[in-house]
Amino acid sequence: MRAFYQAIEYIKSTLESAPLLNTITHGTDIIDNVKKNIFPLAHINILSSSISNGVVNFTFEVAVVDIRNMSKINANDKFLGNDNELDNLNTCHAILNFMITQMRLQRNDQDIELQNDPTLQPILLAFTNALDGWKCDIEISVPNNDFSVCCNGD
């Protein structure tokens, strides 16, 4: 009966060990709705769950974003522009890469496993704070062994 808590704590603890990441949030709220958030920020949102033979599968959307800073100085470089878009994309991609790689390589006491090969999708100038980054859907399986069901043959 704790599979959901185990799944979300597993994602959170893996993200907590990621270099450069400062804040982790969750839920269906807008990602940047708290003014005290320190970026880069990871946001976890549950999408679905299925119960299979001996495991519970959860699909989460994980987004990692940072604030786009735009300089008021005109850019001399037309490719780089006058903002940090490429820096944000690089940093946020590295954080998700770290999370996915850790989930693939690390063994954990609860036998939680990453089940899919996540595809990262860019986020550009999104939400109130003009955020850049990446998001992906991850499917993880948690052993379904918290309780047993007995049936009488009556």
Description:
The protein is of the alpha+beta class and 154 residues long. The chain has one domain (3-143): STM4215-like (2-Layer Sandwich). It has two helices and six strands. The protein has helices at 3-16, 85-105, and strands at 23-26, 41-51, 55-67, 113-114, 121-126, 131-143.
Shape descriptor reads elongated
- Mean pLDDT over the full residue set: 88
- Which regions contain 5 or more consecutive residues with pLDDT less than 50? none
CATH architecture call: 2-Layer Sandwich
User: What is the strand content?
Assistant: 25-35%
Instruction: Profile the largest sheet.
Output: 6 strands, mixed
User: What name is given to the CATH topology?
Assistant: STM4215-like
Radius of gyration: 19 Å
Distance between the termini: 27 Å
Order of helices and strands: HEEEHEEE
Brief summary:
With 154 residues, the protein is α+β, with helices and mostly antiparallel strands.
